[in-house]
Amino acid sequence: MTITGTTRLRRSLVVLFALCAAAAMSVVLAPSASAHGTATSPPARQYSCWERWGDDHLNPDMATEDPMCWQAFQDNPNAMWNWNGLLRMNMQGQHESLIPDGQLCSGGHAEGGRYNSLDAVGPWHATPLDNDFTLHYEDVATHGADYYWVYVTKQGFDVNSEPLGWDDLERVVTTGVYQPGEAIDIPVSAPGRTGHHVVYVIWQASHLDQAFYSCSDVDFG
After folding, report:
1. Could you give the angle at which helices 67-75 and 45-53 cross, rounded to 10 degrees?
2. What is the mean pLDDT of residues 141-150?
3. Is the pTM for the entire model greater than 0.90?
4. Domain coordinates of the chain in residue numbers?
5. Domain 37-219, what architecture?
6. How many alpha carbons fall within 13 Å on the CB side of residue 203?
7. Per-residue model confidence as pLDDT tens digits over 167-211
8. Which residues have CB under 8 Å from 144's CB, separation 6+?
9. Going by DSSP bridges, is the β-strand pair 37-41/132-139 parallel, antiparallel, or unpaired?
10. Are 204 and 147 in contact (CB under 8 A)?
11. What are the distances in angstroms from CA 149 to CA 11, 37, 117, 179?
12. Of 77, 88, 71, 62, which Cα lies nearest the Cα of 31?
């Protein structure tokens, strides 16, 4: 090979390496670039699994210690890596008519079914709470909100044997507008409930007709 040919080969390899590095960085940065938000206290199912197992998601002990997170990671780990992206576009406030019973936690199989595992019935890890608590919602992308609707399952609902439906929920909070960057700490009261319940949240973002959905498992004792 000539000196010129060697130089061209080296330049080609440098360019190829740079392109590969750029592609790799785009994959790594994709979740933060498309960040939106979810409930983080009490944590949404996907956030809870990511928070507790994200650094150890290949640990086979998860299958017995936390079977619902295990099935979620097996179904689609991107549901946890993209914990802040469970959204639907152009719902026009028609949440109940457009999201079928049994699909509430996935937002009606949102994002091509990425979050379907969140609808699974079983013993999800539950956060101990008093009946009066504060819900913290993380608006990562500072979209702001037209409103938050907060629901809690009615007493008698069995999360271990029943798929979640709209009739199982009671809306306990309807907020007003939140400005972009404003902290979202919502007082919630769910009297008369004991045991394992689900806190369901709808966040209607302000920047677009973009609605986010989350299921948080809680234990009222």
Report:
1. 100
2. 94
3. no
4. 1-33, 37-219
5. Distorted Sandwich (2.70)
6. 32
7. 999 999 999 999 999 999 999 999 999 999 999 999 999 999 999
8. 177, 178, 179, 180, 181, 182, 205, 206, 207
9. antiparallel
10. yes
11. 57, 15, 23, 16
12. 77
